[in-house]
Structure formats: C-alpha cells, structure tokens
Design a protein that fits this description.
It is a single chain. By secondary structure, this protein is an alpha+beta fold. The chain contains nine helices and ten strands. The strands form two sheets. Strands 1, 2, 3, 4 and 5 form a five-stranded antiparallel sheet that branches. Strand 4 and strand 5 form a beta hairpin. Helix 2 crosses helix 3. The longest helix has 23 residues. The structure holds (3R)-3-hydroxy-3-methyl-5-(phosphonooxy)pentanoic acid. (3R)-3-hydroxy-3-methyl-5-(phosphonooxy)pentanoic acid (PMV) binds next to helix 4 and helix 5.
Length: 289
C-alpha cells in the first residue's frame, strides 16, 4: 500500500507561529510517497522512536512491515520533510489496513511525531503535509487554519546549500534569546503576525511586489531573532540581486532553505543560484521542478 503527503514552504511567520502568531504557508504537493510491504520484521531507514510512535498511534501491533520512502524533498532543509513522511506513513497503513482515518486524525498523529522530533512544534508542518492547501495557520491552543483560494500561484524558487538547520535547536535558541528580551521579541512576533495576515491578502490579490516587500521585512525580523547564517544571507542577497522582489529564510533557519518570489525572472534567479552551487526547487502552483 502507498501513502502520499505534501511538503511545505513558509512564506511568512515562522518562529512567531511557535508563539501563537499566524504564519502563511503553501504546500509543496505530492512530493513524499511511502510504500509499505509485508516483511518478516520491521524494516526502514528512519529513526526507531519515530516509527514506534507512529505505529503506536496507529494501533498497528503486527510489526512485520517494510517501510520505503520516496521523497523529492531534501531532509533538514526547512521544507517539512519529517511531517510529510509521518503523514504518508499514516496514510499507507490506513490504506493497507482500512483504519478509517480521516484527515484530522492523520494530522493529529503527525503532530504527535513532530512533538517527538522538536518538542514544541506549532503544528504548521503536519497541517500542511495533511491538507496540502495554501493557508494562514495559527496554533492558539488548537490547530486553526484558513485555507486560501487564488487563481495565480506565486512564482517561487526555493534554494538550499550544504548547511542543515536543526529545527529543535533553532526553536530552543529563539526561546533562550526571548527570555532575555521578552518585550522586544514579542514585538517582533506581533509584527510577523501582521505580515502573515497582510501577506495572505496580497497573495490572493497576486500583488507580488508588495508581498515580496513583506517577505524582505520578515527576513530582517528572522535575522533579528538570530536564525540567519552567512550562507543564508548570501542566498537571499543573490536572489534579490537577480531580480527577486522578495527573498527570505524559510523554515527554522540556522541553515536550510530560502524562498524567493520571482515574477518574470524565475529562470534568471534559478540559474544564478545553481551557478553559485545551491540546489533549487521551482514551485508554481501544482508543478514542482
Ligand atoms: O521544521 P521547519 O524547519 O520546516 O520549520 C518549522 C517552522 C518553525 O516555526 C520554526 C517551527 C514550528 O514548529 O512552527
């Protein structure tokens, strides 16, 4: 049996979303596929605790399964790979064993696995992986989202280099720095919230210039809370230099990916980032290349 899930790219609001603010995120559709087949014993290339937790949540007692992952997402680059794997595994077992899981239950199972991976996740990754819709997301004691409809998808390029950011470490670092300057950090998170909500309107109006400006501001705020690196700054500067109207860290930072909004110049930005040695993923609506 197989199961599929989406990755995600956060356009605005990462980190603030851990503190109850909104984030604006888009799915990277159908990029993670899981196949499970009968085997003499449990076999997979994933962390043992992660699979044990999922099987436990799913109520699967017979462990004779081989779990194989086929993913177009890089791992550890802020694109929601671990949540997508959890969702795809849940769906594969649902298909194999007719567990009758609805999307809410799949989302809750993947959220539990995210808690294991990084302590205090907002739930944005598992929610995007499950529902695969553009959304304004928030965790205000419970997972809430408003899905967004629009006809023109934003012309986005995602790029990453060698550095891998560990989400748990980045979130812990932000928490520590916030403890020293709570009032300042809370202002920055409030501003991220405003950017996300305004960004959702601009996204629906296909107003790329203004949306790009908000992404640039958000990048500055992410730098202010201490999650940028010289290599992320280099990627952002390169994308802007080639004509991106907005470019920022996406995901937890400390390494990982940037996202650039590139109306009319996607291929120039893509070519330059690749020439500089980065890997890219071009995202426009349902197509990924
Ligand atoms: O897991 P990542 O690196 O794709 O990013 C998650 C976004 C954060 O806001 C940094 C953490 C969270 O749980 O929302």
């Amino acid at each position: 049996a197989t199961g599929m899930a989406a990755g995600k790219v956060i356009l605005l609001g990462e980190h603030g979303v851990v503190y109850g603010r909104h984030a604006l995120a888009l799915p990277i559709p159908d990029v993670v596929n899981v196949t499970i087949t009968r085997a003499s014993e449990l076999s997979h290339d994933l962390p043992g605790e992660f699979v044990d937790l999922l099987l436990n949540e799913l109520g699967v007692e017979d462990k004779g399964w081989q779990i194989s992952i086929d993913s177009e997402l890089p791992f550890g680059k802020g694109l929601g790979s671990s949540a997508a794997i959890a969702v795809a595994i849940a769906r594969a077992f649902d298909n194999a064993l007719q567990l009758g899981l609805d999307d809410e239950r799949v989302n809750a199972i993947a959220f539990a696995s995210e808690k294991l991976a990084h302590g205090t996740p907002s739930g944005v990754d598992n929610t995007l992986a499950t529902f695969a819709k553009p959304m304004l997301f928030r965790n205000a004691g419970g997972l809430q989202f408003e899905s967004l409809d629009f006809d023109t998808p934003p012309p986005l390029i995602i790029a990453w280099g060698q550095e891998t950011g560990r989400t748990s470490e980045q979130v812990a670092g932000v928490r520590k720095r916030r403890e020293q300057s709570a009032a300042h950090f809370d202002c920055l998170f409030d501003e991220m919230d405003r950017l996300s909500r305004q960004g959702a309107e601009l996204l629906q109006a296909a107003n790329w210039e203004e949306l790009g400006a908000l992404m640039n501001i958000c990048h500055g705020l992410l730098n202010a809370i201490g999650v940028s690196t010289p290599d992320l700054e280099r990627m952002v500067a390169l994308a802007r230099h080639c004509g991106a109207v907005g470019a920022k860290i996406t995901g937890a930072g400390g390494g990982g990916s940037i996202v650039a909004l590139c109306p009319g110049n996607s291929s120039a930005v893509d070519t330059e980032l690749r020439r500089a040695g980065y890997q890219t993923l071009v995202l426009a609506g349902k197509q990924v290349s």
